[in-house]
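Severity: low
Component: inverse-folding endpoint
Summary: output formatting inconsistent between runs
Steps to reproduce: submit the following structure tokens with default settings.
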């Protein structure tokens, strides 16, 4: 269909403007995606020192970073004369301030590991109350946030007359609705810790 020259020029200008806007939008989206992906390249794994027997290992994040997750590796794990394990992982949790990860075996040696991210991407650490014996400790996240990781710190831990562990962690998980982290021991008292975002 024929259009007067004036209309053809206006249509061309409109089309050029739309193409330019689309190009700018594509650049902005690409930049936003690149920015969102950037923190992944800044993730740093920190390995704590090998602990002394029955002592904690602390994996502390560098300045300006916080833990987003963590864990441990047993270096030694005590066994009875018959070869049965009698050790226990009594602590496996983020620092109370969220700046690292701590691990502790009842008698063995351990190394804590922390997954660290820049403070701007780091979650908030929350500490629950000490549980009753055989009870649950819950670390509740602030309103509007959810637990993305967590752990526990034993308050008491039972042993038999030979020094062998008679306790264990029976729960270490996010709450069912994701609003926090809970922990429970078989006999003793424990404290849940959560990382919330």
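Observed output (run 2 of 3):
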């Amino acid at each position: 269909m024929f259009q007067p020259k004036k209309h053809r020029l206006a249509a061309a200008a409109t089309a050029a403007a739309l193409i330019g806007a689309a190009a700018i939008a594509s650049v902005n989206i690409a930049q936003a995606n690149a920015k969102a992906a950037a923190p992944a390249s800044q993730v740093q794994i920190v390995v704590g020192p090998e602990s002394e027997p029955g002592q904690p290992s602390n994996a502390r994040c560098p300045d300006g970073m916080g833990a987003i997750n963590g864990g441990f590796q047993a270096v030694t794990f005590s066994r009875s004369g018959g070869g049965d394990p009698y050790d226990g992982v009594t602590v496996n949790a983020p620092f109370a301030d969220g700046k690292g990860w701590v691990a502790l075996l009842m008698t063995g040696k351990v190394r804590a590991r922390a997954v660290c991210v820049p403070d701007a991407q780091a979650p908030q650490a929350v500490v629950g109350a000490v549980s009753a014996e055989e009870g649950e400790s819950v670390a509740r996240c602030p309103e509007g946030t959810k637990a993305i990781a967590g752990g526990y710190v034993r308050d008491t831990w039972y042993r038999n007359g030979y020094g062998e562990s008679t306790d264990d962690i029976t729960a270490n998980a996010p709450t069912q609705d994701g609003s926090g982290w809970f922990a429970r021991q078989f006999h003793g008292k424990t404290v849940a810790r959560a990382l919330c975002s």
